[in-house]
Amino acid sequence: MVYHIVAVPYPGRGHVNPMMNLCKSLLISSRNQILITFVVTQEWQTLINKNTNHAHADSIRICTFPNVLPSEEVRGNDFPGFYEAVMTKMEEPFEAVIDEINGNVNVDLIIADTELLWARAVATRRLLPLALLWTASASVFSMFLHHQLFLENHSFGNGEKRVDYIPGVSPLRISDLPSIFHDKNGKVLQLYLQCISKVQYAKYLLFNSIYEIEPNAIDTLKSKYSFPLYTIGPLIPFYEATNNEHINYMQWLDSQPKGSVLYISLGSYLSISKEQMEELVVGLCDSGVRFLMVYRGPNKTLLSQNSNSGLFVPWCDQLRVLSHNSIGGFLSHCGWNSVLEAMFCGVPVLTFPISIDQVPNSKQIVEDLKVGVKMKERLGTNNKENDVVMRKEIARIVKGFMDFESREGRELRERANKVLMECVDDPPRAARHEHMVVVPYPSCGHINPMMYLSNSIVSTNPNIHITFVVTQQWLPSIITKQQNNNIRIHSIPNLVSNESSPSFSSTVEAVMTKMEPAIDSLLNEIVDQPPTAIIYDAFLYWVAALANRRNIPVAAFWTTTASEFWLHSFNLLHQYHQNLLGGNSDKLVDYIPGKSWIRLADIPLLDKNNQRVLHWAMKSCESMLKSHCILLPTFYDLESKVIDAMRVKTSTPIYTVGPNIPYFSLEEENSRTRSDVDDKNVNGDGYYLAWLDTQPSNSVLYISYGSFLSVSSAQMDEIANALKISGVRFLWVIREEGSRIKEIFGNNNMVGLVVPWCDQLKVLLHPSIGGYWTHCGWNSIMEGVYGGVPFLTFPIGLDQPLISKMIVEDWMVGWRVKKDDRSDALVTSDEIVTLLRKFMQLDSVVGSGMRKRAKELQRLCHLAIAKGGSSQINIKAFLKNITSSVVFKPNG
């Protein structure tokens, strides 16, 4: 099915052109699988037809409505009146066009210029998602977004005063602010601010910019909005700049020395005074510098100033000119589209701003990027007497600017070339399969569910290929879990501590400081098939920044409960942190939407020993809310109230895609008969299954404490003695102290089995299993729920006490072994014996009710992953969402 986009630009050349270039880029990136209807007033049809080449004629349809606005040719005489007309007169005819189009081909998305105040209302009435395109710089957007700060700081009047409080923008003079900030009328400014206020209701925000040029501004804006924000620039016709059409000015440029020509263009809309134009032309001629100047004005006598070193033309293909090797500089009015074209071509800029955003653009070029020189020093003020730059000054500045031999000239051009490399780093590529990169935290409890999710993704969509990234130490174990050839394992050096490291904090520190450069390097290496999306473990929050710099959509995968994410991301909770640190751990928290009451002591990481990890978890939650979407390893019916509350409070799409366990591998296993378990299997790794086959139904307690946190030797002894005394059948996984524990049972142990490893899911599904003593790691709980068994909870740390609370109090499918999950006190063998005998008593009223509820959870779990189930639907919806976002990646 073809995806249909309606694009509507603001009616100005500096807006129409980038919107059209965006549409052309979308067609290239989407492999022509989209249809675009480009809507303009009739005045623009001639220009649009000229700029729409035959290659896109079938995919970009031009649709017009009557000229309800003053002509562009006269709008400069009354810009406030024109701007107000755009805000008030275009909405009705545009909505009529939408209705007409929808009658033929359903519209899937509207892309509108941010400066069309009414776009949001039309999209809302027609139930259509809205993407907004901002055609100026991200820095200027931040200035408008934070306009209130100027009012609060009384930052008007003194043009030389420095402003250093605009988020994401380097310090600048008040005179460097957009010119309409100084407009006494204020009508246009108020309309601008209204447009910015509507941005929060969009589904996407697109910037005609490059991340590397404005990283601070972009990062700031991404922190302000919860929906996806993409830098998709430069929206210039770089894919058409190789046209070989014969043009006289190009022949003239061919005859000029390399880097010797100054190109001059002051835009298509705002103009300079007659007096300033005369000073400019004379100054250029007097400088002796070669130049090519675009001049549209009526004063033809100026052309008589032409010398052998210069050429005047009424129009040119600007990008082709700036790409020519004879061009050594660009005297520009600093319109953002022209700035981007200069950067794309690596040409330094001599700035001559006239109005609106051109003033801060000039400051950004000269002071931030350091790829230009100011022609005018007094900018953005209302003092007219110093507005004209005289011919002698112009001749001096131009001559110095075009001096290639000076140190300043060489450095200026070197920096311009560096910006060029950032602009052209990722040109459009040919069609390819969708490619996702999956980056888990290097730990068993994180790697496994992300691999199982990857298997589910490629099974759902065979056209998706996945690069799964692990450190070298995890290669042997992860390869066995790879179920599909569409998943490629990529290893990075062992830069982090082994999972068995005694210090969890030191492991985290290693991950945070050493892993990022390796992932950054990997993303730079796979340029032959760049990722169209990245799924990252939420605890690796820095992955999102790496993806953002490359305009790659990201999905955050949270490896534990939705409840923990919700608790850590809910701001009201933060004020109570010190209560716990001060000893008030029994205080009840009952104000989290969707969450039943909980003690502070049950909230993960809220203790003195985990403050750094808590800060890390908070930062991870903050990053998740700015991701393209959130993936949770749970299923809807298990945490429905929390998930509903999350979806109400955040606009970030949330998908429950669990349980992320290897249930799909069981189909192949189940197709084989028990006769396949031969003598070798009985004496090998599968002997425990043969032993389970000899046990009565629901009679065996399965015991496992996970692969990371450990139980003390003293506690292990108490558990072993309790099992020995109780007579309860058991299968116990012990990795390190197995031999010592076996000695406690002696050689005559007829009711239990101690093993170093087992296939946990197969064990939990065995009919002989009647209960599961667990540390409450989320992956293990998901397997227990899938197996339909009740739990004995024995949490050790991190999120496990919270999960224990959910099992015992919320789901009511388990009992606590410890009276206080946070306590480190030894649980004695006498206490354990009583608990074990009661827990495994199948015919008790309490026990049968608990097992009935466990079976109901199992039923809901199996429904979620079945065809048409909630998790299956969510995986498909996620894939549609994340792959369709590639529409907003014209550079690959």
Automatic annotation (TrEMBL):
Pfam families according to UniProt: UDPGT
The keyword Transferase appears for this protein: yes
InterPro entries on file: UDP_glucos_trans (IPR002213), UDP_glycos_trans_CS (IPR035595)
Stretches assigned to coiled coil: none
Listed GO MF terms: quercetin 3-O-glucosyltransferase activity; quercetin 7-O-glucosyltransferase activity
Keywords: Transferase
Origin superkingdom: Eukaryota
PANTHER family the UniProt entry points to: GLUCOSYL/GLUCURONOSYL TRANSFERASES, UDP-GLYCOSYLTRANSFERASE 85A1-RELATED
Family stated for the protein in its record: Belongs to the UDP-glycosyltransferase family.
Protein's recorded name: Uncharacterized protein
Source organism: Arachis hypogaea
Native organism taxonomy: Eukaryota, Viridiplantae, Streptophyta, Embryophyta, Tracheophyta
